[in-house]
Amino acid sequence: MKTNFLNLILTFLRFSPQTSAFSLNSNSTFLDQQPSNVDAAFDNDTVKAAQNIFALLQETQFAADSEFKNFVEHVAGGNGEKSTVDAKTQQATGETKDVTVDKWINEFSNDLSNESEWQNDWATDAVNLSSLDDQIPRSQSWLRHLMDDNYSEYKFSKANSFLDHSTPFEEGLKRLQAHDIVNAVLLFEAAVQKEPNHVEAWLYLGITQSENEQDGPAICALKKCVELDPKNLQAYITLASCYANEMLTNEALDSLRKWLANNDKYSHLLSNRRSQITTTNEPRLIDELAFEELQELFLQAISLSNNPNDIDSDLQVCLGVLFHLPGDYDKAAECFNTAVLAKPDDALLWNKLGAALANGGQSEKAVDAYYHALTLSPGFVRARYNLGISCFNLSAYKQAVEHFLTALKQQSEGIGPQGTHVQMSENIWRTLAIAIGHLQRPDLENSVAKKDLSKLLTEFQIE
């Protein structure tokens, strides 16, 4: 309920005149898409979003009798100003009770054709949070509170038969080694419930959830990891990627800064200067100078090592994430390619390289990178999903559907002997609906709407 509620609010705010797009760079491909005037669409899309939110407000205590509730009720009645926003900020992901495949196709097919909006590790969710710190006016502290709550505490699986396992962490590592990502998640969950201060278990839980196309839970786990161990560098790297996936640019930059500040090799670079990027609970714009300062610091760190045989792959990854945030995908790809040279057996790096290539308009090269990732880790759900997106962008719709279904199947197999299915990604279901729509298969519309995975797997002969 809370996730759907948050998505609906974000959708609504994108059409409201109080919000504004943010760009670290005037040429940012995150937001600098071909502008689209939504004057004509306001009466339908904004009012509909407001009506959906208002309906949810009746079912929850959140914002009861608040200014926000009154404002939404006002717009839900058809009253509101109109605004012009860019094409990307028109994405909407809130679920309603009457979602149909046709609606999914109409809302998302145009967005899906833009590779930079879909390729992960960077744009995991169709909803473009686009640095919420920058879009949320200061007066809307209720939304900041809701967003913080959404990433504050890890929500454990309701049914987990591994809770009684004697050594869940060790078994989780074995499952991860065997590419059984979804059950590794359950085992790491069992490990941290058994030992709440188990730093490494929280780290692996966050990393594995990220591989499983679940950035929200990954962020919660990784935040707990750095709370217990503020100098855990791997947690900061993964957090930066997850925040970038969620379009939380402020948080991504802050995680990169903390990685640098806590790294004994490079922390001295910060000793004589005060970084302009600071953690804050108040919504605000990031000064472009702050981004440029962090970029300069990372480039200085790169210059400290001139030995081509001694590549700091983690440093290259951090710089790649940093370049990716404003849409400098070519430079990001160069960094990830360098990291891959140092760690050719790292599936996560191959996926990041694929994402940067795809976002830079090189889908065919991205496909090769994703296949490398899947060869190393066949259960890598995120890489499988990304491969499907690249196939879609190459108009290979049937292959895209097959990859999406495989990803959903892998997620659905995350069960123990007595457990229930783990949650499957709504994002994958939405993109699957779009791809099936392009196959002109109206006979499958009902199966997609009902999320009848078994029937769809049979239809496409996926075992």
UniProtKB/TrEMBL annotation:
Primary localization: cytoplasm
UniProt signal peptide: 1-21
TPR repeats: from-to residues: 199-232, 313-346, 347-380
Any one biological process term the GO annotation gives: protein import into peroxisome matrix, docking
Residue ranges the record marks as coiled coil: none
InterPro entries: PEX5/PEX5L (IPR024111), TPR-like_helical_dom_sf (IPR011990), TPR_rpt (IPR019734)
Intracellular or extracellular location(s): Cytoplasm; Peroxisome
Keywords: Cytoplasm, Peroxisome, Repeat, Signal, TPR repeat
GO cellular component terms listed in the entry, alphabetical order: cytosol; peroxisomal membrane
GO molecular function annotations of the record: peroxisome matrix targeting signal-1 binding
Protein family: Belongs to the peroxisomal targeting signal receptor family.
Listed name of the protein: Peroxisomal targeting signal 1 receptor
